[in-house]
Design a protein that fits this description.
Layout: E1 2-5, E2 9-13, E3 18-23, E4 31-44, E5 54-69, E6 72-79, E7 83-90, E8 101-104, E9 108-111, E10 117-121, E11 124-128, E12 131-137, E13 140-144, E14 146-152, E15 155-160, E16 169-173, E17 177-181, E18 187-194, E19 200-206, E20 227-233, E21 240-246, E22 252-259, E23 265-271, E24 297-303, E25 310-316, E26 322-329, E27 335-341, E28 362-368, E29 375-381, E30 387-394, E31 400-406, E32 440-446, E33 452-458, E34 464-471, E35 477-483, E36 502-508, E37 515-520, E38 527-535, E39 541-549, E40 554-562, E41 573-575, E42 581-588, E43 595-601, E44 622-628, H1 647-652, H2 658-671, H3 675-696, H4 699-721, H5 723-745, H6 751-775, H7 779-782, E45 803-804, E46 814-815, E47 828-834, E48 837-843, E49 848-852, E50 855-860, E51 874-878, H8 883-896, E52 902-909, E53 912-920
Parallel strand pairs: 45-53, 46-53
Antiparallel strand pairs: 1-2, 2-3, 3-8, 4-5, 5-6, 6-7, 7-16, 8-15, 9-10, 10-11, 12-13, 12-16, 14-15, 17-44, 18-19, 19-20, 20-21, 22-23, 23-24, 24-25, 26-27, 27-28, 28-29, 30-31, 31-32, 32-33, 34-35, 35-36, 36-37, 38-39, 39-40, 40-41, 42-43, 43-44, 47-48, 48-49, 49-50, 50-51, 51-52, 52-53
Length: about 900
């Protein structure tokens, strides 16, 4: 955010909100001055008028407001380069009870379970940590009990325990915990798990020789150029119990991690090292004979609880490329692994569910015993297309549940499926009309012996990817991932998918014969992917992932919580800094409340917090681990996200109902941006819970409320499409009603008086209504100085006659990508106007062009010219998704899985459809 300190208030400015914090009853003219001068000086030369120039402006580390109240100062400063901190310093004898903070521009103030003050502003949350209160003396700091206190609508103060009024008192709100993981190279965290004592385990890969490994760990120094790592942190993310490299002299990467009941860590990934650390007697202690140098094998390692030694280490693969992507462990210590393999000689077990490979690449599922010496079972899982297992979990009976993606080969794609599905499941066949090479989600359940219990598709005709899976105590499988299908299956009360890349949340019953629910994950951005899912003991679901936000196409991590029924999503919690932040792994404290993410970030400034294990950014790309707290299992907050007790939800029976979505959008887009609208929302949320509870208990009231709300919903829907017209209609109608009431008051004074009264009343009411509409908008929100995020308009697309050439042109080209295992360099994006509509002008290593709702028009092909893409071509889809979503998904997939390196590009040139295949190596 951007922060402004003025003489009377503090202004927090984000891309979507403006919040003002005022000190109630404070000195209007405090002594404001800089503290701790910094060596830098600033100069600005604006225009030709020297009177506007500012030169030799000093900079400071802190700003002090002296005497805001009698005997009380406020000190503002930055923590770790980006996080705001502020202290109230109370002099001896002064009264801290006079401190009151009033917030303008918020929908609601609330104190969460952790004691943090949370400001809800539409779908944005500003979090003020629980105050840390202390007194200092020669003997050190002495803590004082302290907490936030809600004093009224929009106003808070502090509630303090006993303290010595003879000494200075400091009130210092704290912040949540975020830590970097990395050195000066490229570091990526891909998976995260919790130990039995709440410790946090993270794995990924690093090119940093100075990655923060610990002495006494299994491999405290880097053996190769790219190595896997495993880090065990305490539950405060402040201390590493151990941090170790894992690898040989080749390239090694961790992709999945699980922890057993005694703290052993199980890790899978891939390695090209001939000297990868294995143990005698392991399932596969050496690389397969005849394997070419540089080809990857999956691996499985088990680290002891101190991270000092391997319990076992083994390769898992054949002579072609094999990638381990997901791992789970049962209470007995048996490991279950999934991923993708090109190897026809991948080690399978006797009586495997599928003993031979089905196509070029298949998913695999393998289970190892606790010693790593016995392959309990191993099977292929796939058809003639490309198949990969992305995630795996196990239930209490040792059945394994796997999700991933599958494509069909060109020949049978339109008529049948050869991926192994079972009879009676929700979707035994691919959607009709799906193009070759487009991915579908699969969900497969294997028995404890590795035999197929059920297997089903889940998806539509666009690109779909299963990326995370959990199973509840009833044996229901819950899956998340990403979809670009408009016909991805949804529950009856859920909105449909848009066709952009969206995260999904889908639940199957224990036999996969019924979809218990299926819905979009309501992220702020239309470009998002659910990359992992967690579940607490109460069955609440937590989806973590990444999305593209804002005109600069910045990526941020996100978390959204759902009820066990997939309803009542919380507002989105963003995790990120000024750079790009991708979350790849999520885990949840089973008691609820704390959620942990792992991923990678280019946010160099202040993404971490004080007291974290690694508070300083290490290099160009760092891993990160973050603890997000304060998830409230209660029913609702005033933002309306947990809308279990509101009138529309009570009337229509579900917070996912289309009518509820319309009203929520009306609130967020038209009411929340202005003061008058927010006042109306606040009044509504004070009276609605009690009314909703009455409505929920009577079917007749539900029917009457639905009838009464339908014209309101119709008006809200019209207002979302034509806000100015709707406001004008409202202003005229309201003014006519007011004028009619005035005229009736003069009903006994003759027709002429009534006409003049009506006309005068109408004009006065119309003027006042227009004034409220114009002046009710926050001045700073409308100011040119405040940044605005503008989304591309959804335009009606004119159908063109697109003719597929009989022999579709195909190309296969190798592009050298520096900095493996990263995908191609990040694109630079900026908004631009194109043919009357807003689009995004993109500069990248492959091609420059303009992205609009109609596709990506190439202006400079660059490296893409090698595959026959020319200036003027319009790219319609990438890997079965629209260009923006397909490009984003491709980057995510290549980050996790280097064998997912093929881009299927469909483009139009002069009305003719063409297909290009780009292989990125």
């Amino acid at each position: 955010m951007t922060l402004f300190l003025t003489s009377t208030e503090t202004v927090f400015l984000t891309t979507r909100s403006v919040v003002r914090m005022r000190l109630v009853g404070a000195n209007a003219e405090p002594d404001v001055h800089g503290v701790d001068p910094l060596p830098g000086r600033q100069h600005s030369f604006l225009g030709r008028d020297p009177s506007r120039w500012r030169t030799d402006v000093p900079t400071y580390a802190r700003v002090r407001y002296r005497g805001v109240y009698r005997g009380i100062d406020v000190l503002y400063y930055g923590a770790d380069g980006r996080q705001l901190e502020y202290d109230f310093v109370v002099a001896p004898g002064a009264d801290p009870g006079v401190i009151q903070l009033a917030f303008d521009g918020v929908d609601r103030l609330r104190i969460d379970d952790r004691g943090d003050l949370v400001l809800d502003v539409g779908e944005t949350h500003l979090r003020f940590g629980k105050p840390r209160v202390y007194q200092a003396s020669a003997a050190g700091r002495h803590p004082v009990a302290g907490a936030w206190a809600l004093l009224g609508a929009g106003t808070v103060g502090f509630r303090l325990g006993p303290y010595d009024s003879r000494h200075v008192l400091v009130i210092d709100p704290t912040v949540a915990v975020v830590s970097y993981l990395g050195g000066t190279g490229t570091d990526q965290a891909f998976a995260i798990a919790l130990g039995p004592d709440g410790s946090v385990f993270v794995t990924g890969n690093t090119t940093s020789a100075n990655f923060p490994a610990t002495a006494g760990s299994f491999q405290p120094s880097a053996p190769g150029a790219v190595d896997a790592f495993v880090v065990k942190l305490d539950n405060t993310l402040s201390t590493a119990a151990y941090s170790t490299f894992i690898g040989g002299t080749g390239d090694d990467a961790g992709r999945g991690i699980a922890v057993d009941a005694v703290g052993n860590a199980y890790v899978t990934g891939f390695t090209t090292s001939a000297d990868f650390p294995t143990t005698p007697g392991a399932v596969q202690p050496a690389r397969p004979p005849g394997q070419a140098a540089g080809v990857a094998d999956a691996f499985v390692v088990k680290l002891n609880p101190r991270g000092a030694a391997l319990v076992y280490g083994t390769y898992l693969g054949g002579t072609d490329s094999d990638i381990g992507l997901g791992i789970a462990v049962d209470p007995a210590g048996n490991a279950f692994v999934t991923g993708g393999t090109f190897s026809a000689n991948f080690p399978t077990s006797f009586a495997a569910a599928q003993p031979t490979i089905g196509g070029d690449r298949d998913a695999f599922v393998a289970s190892l015993d606790p010693t790593g010496t016995v392959l309990r079972y191993s099977t292929f899982l796939g058809g003639t297309g490309a198949d990969v297992g992305n995630a795996i979990t196990v239930d209490r009976s040792d059945a394994a549940y796997v999700t991933g993606s599958t494509t069909c080969a060109p020949a049978p794609c339109a008529v049948l499926t050869d991926f192994p599905t079972t009879a009676g499941v929700v979707s035994p066949l691919r959607p009709a009309g799906q193009a070759a090479g487009v991915t579908d989600v699969f969900v497969t359940k294997l028995s404890p012996a590795g035999l197929r219990v059920y297997s089903t598709f889940v998806g539509g005709t666009g690109a779909d990817e299963g990326l995370g899976i959990v199973v509840d105590q009833s044996g229901d499988a819950i899956v998340t991932g990403a979809t670009a299908s408009t016909n991805f299956p949804v529950s009856a009360s859920s909105p449909a998918f848009t066709g952009a890349l969206q995260a999904f949340l889908t639940k199957l019953d224990p036999t996969a014969t019924t979809l218990l629910f299926s819905r979009p994950v309501p992220t702020t951005s239309p470009l998002a992917a659910g990359l992992g899912i967690g579940q607490d003991n109460a069955g609440r679901l937590y989806v973590g992932g990444s999305e593209v936000r804002g005109g600069a196409a910045q990526t941020d991590a996100f978390i959204i919580e759902f009820s066990p029924a997939g309803t009542s999503p919380t507002n989105e919690v963003f995790v990120g800094g000024s750079g790009d932040d991708l979350a790849f792994g999520i885990t949840v404290d089973p008691r609820g409340g704390n959620v942990y993410l792992a991923g990678q970030t280019t946010s160099a400034a202040g993404f971490s917090t004080r007291g974290a294990f690694q508070p300083v950014f290490g290099g160009g790309v760092d891993g990160f681990v973050v603890q997000v707290s304060g998830f409230n299992p209660g029913l609702s907050d005033e933002s309306g996200s947990n809308s279990g007790c509101f009138i529309a939800t009570a009337a229509f029976g579900s917070p996912l109902a289309r009518e509820v979505f319309v009203l929520r959008a009306f609130r967020d887009r038209l009411l929340a941006p202005n003061a008058a609208g927010r006042a109306l929302v606040r009044v509504y949320y004070r009276v609605s819970p009690a009314v909703a509870r009455v409505i929920e208990g009577h079917d007749a009231l539900k029917a009457a409320t639905r009838a009464a709300l339908r014209p309101v919903i119709a008006g809200a829907g019209f207002a979302l499409v034509r806000p100015r017209t709707a406001f004008l209609v409202f202003a005229v109608s309201w003014s006519a009603l007011a004028a009619l009431l005035v005229a009736l008051a003069f009903s006994r004074r003759g027709a002429t008086v009534r006409r003049w009264a009506f006309t005068g009343g109408f004009l006065v009411a119309l003027s006042l209504t227009l004034a409220v509409g114009l002046l009710g908008v926050d001045r700073d929100a409308a100011s040119p100085a405040a940044p605005r995020v503008v989304s591309p308009p959804v335009t009606t697309r004119v159908d063109r006659r697109s003719v597929e050439r009989p022999n579709t042109e195909r190309y296969d080209v190798a592009l050298d990508v520096a900095g493996w295992p990263l995908a191609p360099g990040a694109a630079r994006v900026r908004p631009t106007f194109h043919r009357g509509g807003l689009g995004y002008q993109i500069e990248s290593d492959l091609a420059d062009g303009i992205l609009t709702a109609d596709g990506f028009t190439v202006t400079e092909p660059k490296a893409a010219a090698a595959v026959g893409i020319a200036s003027g071509d319009r790219i319609v889809s990438i890997n079965g998704a629209p260009p923006a979503g397909g490009g984003f998904a491709s980057v995510l997939m290549m980050q996790r899985d280097p064998d997912r390196n093929t881009l299927e590009v469909v483009l139009e040139r002069d009305g003719v459809s063409m297909r290009r295949t780009i292989v990125v190596r």
